[in-house]
Amino acid sequence: MATYEDLQPYIRRIADGDRSPILSGHPVSEFLTSSGTSAGERKLMPTIEDELNRRQLLYSLQMPVMNLYVPGMDKGKALHFLFVKSETKTPGGLAARPVLTSYYKSNHFKNRPFDAYNNYTSPTAAILCADAFQSMYAQMLCGLCQRQDVLRVGAVFASGLLRAIRFLQLNWEQLAEDIEAGSLTPRVTDPSVREAVAGILRADPELAALVRSECSKGDWAGIITRIWPSTKYLDVIVTGAMAQYIPTLKYYSGGLPMACTMYASSECYFGLNLRPMCDPSEVSYTLMPNMCYFEFLPMDSAAASGGDASQLVDLARVEVGREYELVITTYAGLNRYRVGDVLQVTGFHNSAPQFRFVRRKNVLLSIESDKTDEAELQRAVERASALLRPHGAAVVEYTSQAYTKSIPGHYVIYWELLAKGPAGGAAVGEGTLERCCLEMEEALNTVYRQSRVADGSIGPLEIRVVRPGTFEELMDYAISRGASINQYKVPRCVTFPPIIELLDSRVVSSHFSPALPHWTPGQRSDSD
């Protein structure tokens, strides 16, 4: 089995211009850059021309599956916020860009035939505009102009759709002005975008009045269905780390269902959710065996921590209920490559196994012997944030760090709060936030609680509340350093000093756990 670090010297040779068949007999056509927030650096994934056809095939299966559950999606349009990122070139002259940028810039997308099931409100020129503001503005404006036609609203990740709603909150006045006048703001300068929008934008004082009426109230609950009344569902990924956005999306959408349709990565596209309208907690993906060769490393085997390939099982031999690390062999030359995703087998579609995405394999937080992963931190935040509901507040975004400058070290959780009630976030008092700290500790594993109670090797958990908009600044910072707007995911743990400095400079209050969590010596620890 191989990790990215094992392949890096070969990838570097290809990137530097070596055209010999190093990883694959097929020539590498370009590099796909992985998410800027995975493992701290952008990985270069080799790809070949044929892969576009395979990706296109998976895309083409999405709506036929959806049509089984939500018929009539060919009678309207999709408001999907889609973005490209400016690409770079490797020293050897190959393009290096995110997988979605590669797809949107391909002829498969740009010259696609009309498809009533994938009829977007956004003009292609707006999607292909590399300036994030101009692209978002044009897409939002065109979405508003065609509000009666919109049957689904989406983005790649849940966080992207929330960013679009935040954009509407900040720019609705200018958008309404443009709709009233029938002319586009001079802030959008890209000629191709202006031309594309001119084909859609018409003076519509009635629509401008509606936008002003809905957005000026200060009440954003159900805003998606208030502005786009025919919306049947949200098309967003809300599995894995994105699950924490579900309550906020429900708030803004008035409780619309959320469809997670596809499971994919920069390395390879994997499969589809054949029950796209299921509850987000029940999402399972059916892997398509034509996308790559799939193998699975049992997480409960000794090989899971080492590199023993003899423990690998293939797609036909996985067992229901067990967790596996995904290992793939791709057409582009990744051989027995460890993706780093942990999947659990939930059942079968005919004979094809179906998998729930559990987590990324890497441990998130650790002070000493404790090991807290992303799913566990997510559960702890969810449990603690329930204490905010009576106060009309919710956690809209979070991240963490293992703070080791003091002895003992402790977990620091950064929370950005969304005030839903008229009283706003100010209604959440010191005592409530301290109880949130303790509630999080109660939800963490027994090794953590033993370290707190018996060993004293971990200090009280701290919640630092940051001011609204902080996580948007964090994203802007990541994008300025080369992260892709499409693939950006808020890091659930931060270690990079400038990011910690940014977060700490936005803290408005700090709260510590007021007591020790429960722990008794009789409990088995996860490391026993």
From TrEMBL:
InterPro entries hit by this protein: GH3, GH3_C, GH3_M
GH3 middle domain residues: 285-360
Q: Would the keyword Ligase be found if you checked this record's keyword annotation? A: yes
What Pfam families is this protein classified in?
GH3, GH3_C, GH3_M
| Coiled-coil region(s) | none
Q: Does the keyword Ligase apply?
A: yes
Which key words are in the record?
Ligase
Tell me the ranges covered by the GH3 C-terminal domain, including all copies: 376-496
Q: Which GO terms describe its molecular function?
A: ligase activity
Q: Which family does it belong to?
A: Belongs to the IAA-amido conjugating enzyme family.
Tell me the protein's name: Indole-3-acetic acid-amido synthetase GH3.8
Q: What is the species of this protein?
A: Zea mays
Highest lineage ranks of the organism?
Eukaryota, Viridiplantae, Streptophyta, Embryophyta, Tracheophyta
Gene behind this protein: LOC100285387
